[in-house]
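Re: that chain you flagged

S.,

Sorry for the slow reply, it's been a week of failed gels. I finally had a moment to sit down with the sequence you sent. For the record, here it is as I used it:
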Amino acid sequence: MKAANNIGQKQVIWIVGGSSGIGLALAEGLLQQGFCVVVSARRIEALQTLAEGFPETIQCVPVDVTEPSTLKDGLSAILAHWGQLDRVIL
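Prediction finished late last night. Pasting the structure tokens below so you have them in one place:
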């Protein structure tokens, strides 16, 4: 599968539960280091400020871990956007 974005050799890391606390801090740190980061939360509105700061290297995907279908949909969205997924942090 070819990536929709030209990310070169950058790794794509998916952080589930990244709208606050440790998940948000981890996302910020990885973005500052140049990784491509997917951040998931039940409400992605909380991620808009973070997304505005890194428009080329972030993707926000709504996921509710209590609803397995949202995880599958989230993975599909990630692969469609980046063409790869290298790591997942739950």
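What I noticed first: The chain is about 35% helix and 20% strand.

Talk soon,
D.
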